[in-house]
Amino acid sequence: MIFKRKKRNQVQPDADEEQQAAQAGADAPQVAPQEPATGPWDIKDIENPDDYLNFGSLLIKPMTGLKVRMDVEEKTKRVISLSLEVAESRIQLQAFARSKSQELWPGISNKIAEDISKQKGELFTREGELGKELLAKVPQQLPDGRAGHVALRFIGVDGPRWFLRVVIGGAAISNEQAAGIVDELVRGVVVNRGEKPLPPQELLPLNVPSNATTRAEPVAGAPSVQRPERGPEITQIG
């Protein structure tokens, strides 16, 4: 801090004025620090988990027309992600453990960029509401056999001892209204890290919530990040 001498003609407040100013400051209402207005949230940030669909490490706020599918790895039979569908868009969610000191998104975003480059895809980076985002065009064979591409949006959120990876596809990529619905859904996600010691990048466990109905759909293999819509179980919500 730089201190400056007072000018000779500067009027000095007398003792009564200083006392009045101090009293006014003491009487003024104290403004509490503002909490973040949007999520994704930690489980400790919410008051009532019963308001959510509880998948264990991930809690989802119910929304009209929302479908949730639990993606199961065929080899291990373990649920590895949630795939949500709403507003003609798809959202894949995965939560991982992380240490307090190391953020995972920088390294994971670099790995995603490398993988897309190997597939001869296109990649763009932008700053979104939740930080750095990746927008990608990934080559994909169309149902009629022709060569095409799928557009995807990748988001990473480093929370308190957890990391949330989000992959978005469908109408939300180009439709502003759909994007608003999807962003609202993502901001409402709650992550429950749990207290069990886990190594960094360990996938947090998922399970079927007690307040949802499921029906099984067998598939040939595990879902990939380019195809978040694939999965062996579908849950209809709302």
Give a structural overview.
The chain is α+β, with helices and mostly antiparallel strands and 238 residues long. Helix content is 16%, strand content 34%. The chain has a nine-stranded antiparallel β-sheet. Strands 1-11-3-2 form a four-stranded mixed β-sheet, with no helix packed on it. A hairpin with a 5-residue loop joins strand 8 (131-141) and strand 9. It is globular. Mean pLDDT is 80; it is low at 1-13, 28-36 and 214-238.
The helix/strand series, from N terminus to C terminus, equals HEEEEEEHEEEEHEEE
How many beta-strand elements? 13
- Average pLDDT for all residues: 80
Shape: globular
What is the spatial order of strands in the main beta sheet?
7-8-9-10-6-5-4-13-12
**Helical content class:** 10-25%
Number of helices: 3
Radius of gyration: 24 Å
Q: What count of domains describes the coordinates?
A: 1
| Intertermini distance | 59 Å
Q: What's the story with the biggest beta sheet?
A: 9 strands, antiparallel
Derived from helix and strand composition plus strand pairing, the structural class reads: alpha+beta
Strand content: 25-35%
Detail the poorly predicted runs: 1-13, 28-36, 214-238
